[in-house]
Request: fold
Amino acid sequence: MKTTRRLVRHSPAHRQRGGITLLLIMVLIVLAALVGVLAVRGATSDLQMAGAQRVARSGFYCAEGGLNKARAYAAANPKDWAVILAGGTSVSWYGSDPKGMPVDVDDDGTIDAYVKMVDNSDGDNDLTHDNDLTVILTSTCSSTSKFEANNAQRVVSQIITYAGAGPQDYQA
Reply:
């Protein structure tokens, strides 16, 4: 018995079954790369926002630190409030700078904040004279290179009221 070999020819549709699989794999790879790029982009923007918040918080803490240091001086020297509000420069702890009292928040020898004392609205329409022992301290962080980005300024204000005779007897 003799066997004959028979050549079996596949139809063109039968021969291209692997091509569709390869095309699907390539599409999936492109989609995975696109998702990866979007994930990296989202993570980068999150890091940038977190960095901006950290810098803004540092500027706020700078202004708040200036306010805390100046508040201690103001509370200990309520007799000087009238001179400061009237624009006098004879008060040594407040200084003569028109921006206010210079404060070195981190004790590195450079001025980080300026704290200005102004009279509150106490009914007399005279901001150079205090008649209710209440003033407003406003601290502005001026150390933009260290605590702030883009030369932004952080400002914090606080109302303080002298309530007695001792240097620590005030309300903030």
